[in-house]
Amino acid sequence: MDRGARLMTPSLLLTFATYAFVTSITPGPNNAMVLASGLNFGFRRTIPHLLGINLGFSAMVLAVGLGLGGVFTAWPVLHDVLRYVGALYLVYLAWKIARSGTTADGAAAARPMSFAQAAAFQWVNPKAWIMAIGAVATYTPQNGFFLNIVVVTVVFALINGPCIAAWAGFGVVLRRVLTGARSQRIFNLAMATLLVLSLAPILFDSLK
């Protein structure tokens, strides 16, 4: 290891932590899905979904830092493939949420997203790519890059975890409020609609 390598400064770390919090807590495909999962399945059954998001995204940040992000620069067509695969998968997830049962008619027998499914979804989630590339390109110093990308990955994981858990917790609160079958179906349709609306930036914007 280069003896001259230094960790990111406290001020840069604070700035990055703010970025990690804002991007993790704001609405997106992951948060919409765990919100719906919290309502339909409860917090405990949503835990594998939460862990899959957190660890899958952390692996993505590390992979981008180790050079995967440069693949998009070398082969831009891969970016287009990612966008449209991600869009199709989001439509599928929206359809599943829209068809979710209610707590009154047997949603407990349905299956929430598994750890592996949630982790795999991060690789076709355009918001996750934007978050990861932004963290590496903007906040990771070149001096001591490998050590700093590890710090960025760990800090992002520590901040992202509670943020997505809060969305699932909010879903649990709604589970106690939206006790009627009709209100739960309306909620599921609203979440499905939000996922479809999130396709606009996926289809028309490029990863920065």
UniProtKB/TrEMBL annotation:
This is LysE family translocator. It holds the Pfam family LysE. It comes from Phreatobacter stygius. Signal peptide: none annotated. The keyword Transmembrane helix applies. GO terms for biological process: cysteine export across plasma membrane. Keywords: Cell membrane, Membrane, Transmembrane, Transmembrane helix. One of its GO terms (molecular function) is amino acid transmembrane transporter activity. It is a multi-pass membrane protein. It is found in: Cell membrane. GO terms for cellular component: plasma membrane. The chain crosses the membrane at residues 12-39, 51-75, 81-98, 119-139, 145-174, 186-204. It comes from the Bacteria.
